[in-house]
Design a protein that fits this description.
about 20% strand; 9 helices; 7-stranded mixed sheet; 10 strands; about 45% helix; alpha/beta
């Protein structure tokens, strides 16, 4: 009897997991099919804005005063000049801007989300060597003189699509750098062979998008933290090379703060 009960429970557990997985995959498929089919560029941006409207983590004072993440601190120590003028795009509520200002850099931060930009202004207002500009995406400021280094704020690059827009963005950033100046970019990633459900939704939605003369959704585009693009290994670095930048290195920091991994690369403007 005990053996029979154990066998029954094991079968129920297996069935439950299979059904739950199928339901989750179906919901994910329908969700992506809807957003990919219906929304245009303005809609994708609004979806991302809504994510940050309800994501209080990035607005927390403790987070924004915590300084660099360990992998960011390592990059700044090893690749950045010891002084100079820094641009931080997608600066959120100002965490990276504050960290650079405390080290004595002159810092310009740009942010497209109105609420985060206000918080960054409040946080960085008392700092003598920091300023915040609220700009539409992708947040390229007008600059009278070049920057010694540039950071695309934590994960900001992942919200840009399509690929041609990201490459153009990197080219614009390169034009703002001094020769040899470093550019740090972090992004989300996806492992090879995963995301088949989203891929099916993408292909189905692109049929409708073609009929309505809208750009196709690209492999790696997803609805997770708003609308974003998740990269296969090497893809982001390839975009930097296409933009005419020289790749210094690419890496993935180990899991840690907020429980995630942080793929990133450093490129520089050729001397």
């Amino acid at each position: 009897m005990r053996f029979g009960t154990f066998t029954l429970l094991r079968w129920i557990d297996h069935t439950d997991r299979a059904v739950s997985g199928a339901l989750f995959a179906s919901v994910r498929f329908l969700r992506h099919l809807f957003y990919f089919s219906v929304l245009g560029e303005r809609g994708f941006q609004t979806l991302t804005d809504l994510y940050y409207d309800h994501q209080g983590f990035y607005a927390q004072d403790g987070h924004n005063r915590r300084g660099f993440l360990p992998w960011e601190a390592e990059v700044v120590e090893n690749c950045f000049p010891k002084s100079g003028r820094i641009l931080v795009t997608s600066c959120g509520a100002g965490r990276e801007v504050v960290a650079f200002a405390k080290l004595g850099y002159e810092v310009v931060g740009t942010e497209c989300h109105a609420g985060l930009c206000r918080l960054a202004g409040d946080l960085c207002g008392p700092l003598e060597r920091a300023e915040i500009e609220c700009l539409p995406p992708p947040g390229i400021p007008a600059a009278d003189c070049p920057f010694d280094a540039i950071v695309v704020g934590w994960g900001g690059y992942t919200h840009l699509a399509p690929r041609s827009r990201r490459v153009a963005f990197l080219k614009d950033l390169g034009s703002l750098l001094r020769p040899g100046g470093p550019l740090l970019v972090s992004h989300l990633s996806r492992p090879p062979g995963r995301g088949r459900t989203i891929e099916l939704a993408r292909r189905a939605a692109n049929i409708l998008r073609a009929l309505t003369f809208r750009r196709p959704i690209e492999p790696g585009d997803m609805i997770t933290i708003g609308f974003c693009h998740c990269f296969l290994p090497g893809e982001a670095a390839a975009e930097a090379r296409e933009a005419g930048l020289e790749l210094v290195f690419e890496a993935t920091a180990p899991p840690g703060f907020a429980g995630g991994q942080y793929p990133h690369f450093v490129a520089r403007k050729s001397r």
